[in-house]
Specification:
The protein is α/β, with parallel strands linked by helices and 317 residues long. It is built from 12 helices and 14 strands. The structure holds 2-amino-3-ketobutyric acid (AKB).
């Protein structure tokens, strides 16, 4: 019998694309999407859906039992910028949802768990360029503290209870289907919309703020790769560094200008600048390359081409 999957947080930026990708791989009926509210028509129509509040253990447990779930992808989380405004809620959501899933796995009700971590686990005292897998980690954001704590718990549940939990430290993710919400890296998605709609963009980060980023297709490929890797290949049970592209607002603007010459950008850094300044500029993902053959495909040029081509079509509808 093939794998039965539950995605919690299936209507968000990553969850919505991950759901469609996993339905393609495992079959529509095998992949149960769930979220606190209903999502886009194509997600709702293509397979099973459950309303699940990730903070409520009973709701998660019921969905797992009802659908005889083997694997859970826990994508529900509050991201960095919103978390700074709602620290207590962000902590509750990010930590309780993880404990619910880890505890179900500990009880043998789930065989495998995917939980996303983030570059936010690093902080101002971390080496910023080519940040190593193992290094100083003193996150200065609520979101970063929750992700770093989550990593420790994942490793603990694996070591003490044999829970097969797998994790990646996502960089900023860029996609054209579902907009992100509440992150510090979100400018790198907004900029494409504004370039097409208004030919100008005011960036909330300063022009030379380099951050690690990745096109969504690469992030989905990495997620599938780590989940399908034989257990013995997944040697790190906290979370793997995942490098992709690294660029500044000025560099992405210059690339957009090669397609839209009249595009202009100006800069009005806000509270998110301090968050970005505390994060790495680029990431060393040698461990992911060595352990489960990770390699990203998209660079700034190819990603910009795909983003502009697809957004131009979807915005004209
Ligand atoms: C955010 O900006 O908060 C996220 C992240 C890097 O985890 N995109």
């Amino acid at each position: 019998m093939s794998t039965k999957i539950l995605i919690i947080g299936a209507c968000g930026q990553i969850g919505s694309e991950l759901t469609m990708k996993l339905r393609e791989i495992y079959g529509n009926d095998q992949v149960v999407a769930s979220d606190i509210r209903e999502g886009k028509p194509e997600l709702m129509a293509s397979g099973p859906f459950e309303i699940v509040n990730a903070m409520e253990f009973e709701q998660v447990a019921q969905a797992v039992e009802k659908h005889q779930i083997d694997e859970v992808y826990l994508m529900a989380a509050m991201l960095s910028a919103t978390a700074e405004k709602n620290p207590a809620f962000a902590w509750d959501l990010n930590m309780n949802s993880l404990f619910h899933v880890l505890n179900l796995a500990k009880e043998g009700k789930i065989k495998k768990v995917f939980w996303p971590s983030s570059i936010a686990v690093f902080g101002p005292t971390t080496p910023r360029i080519n940040t190593p897998q193992y290094t100083v980690m003193e996150p200065s954001t609520v979101y970063g503290i929750s992700k770093q704590t989550g990593e420790r718990w994942c490793e603990y549940y694996h070591a003490k209870f044999g829970v097969d939990v797998r994790s990646i430290r996502y960089p900023g993710l860029i996609s054209w289907t579902t907009p992100p919400g509440g992150g510090t890296t979100d400018y790198a998605v907004d900029i494409y919309y504004k370039a097409l709609e208004d030919k100008k963009y005011t960036c909330f980060l300063a022009e030379n703020t380099a951050l690690p980023m990745m096109y969504m297709d690469d992030a989905l490929a990495a997620t599938v790769a780590i989940m399908q890797a034989p257990a013995e290949k997944v040697k790190i049970r906290s979370s793997y560094n995942l490098g992709g592209i690294s660029f500044t607002p000025a560099e992405i603007a210059a690339e957009i200008k090669t397609h839209i010459p009249e595009f202009t950008i100006d800069y009005a850094p806000d509270f998110r600048q301090a968050i970005a300044d505390s994060w790495p500029a680029s990431i060393d993902d040698t461990a992911a390359q060595t352990d489960w053959n990770w390699k990203h495909q998209y660079d700034l040029k190819s990603m910009t081409q795909v983003m502009l081509d697809n957004l131009a079509i979807s915005l004209s509808k």
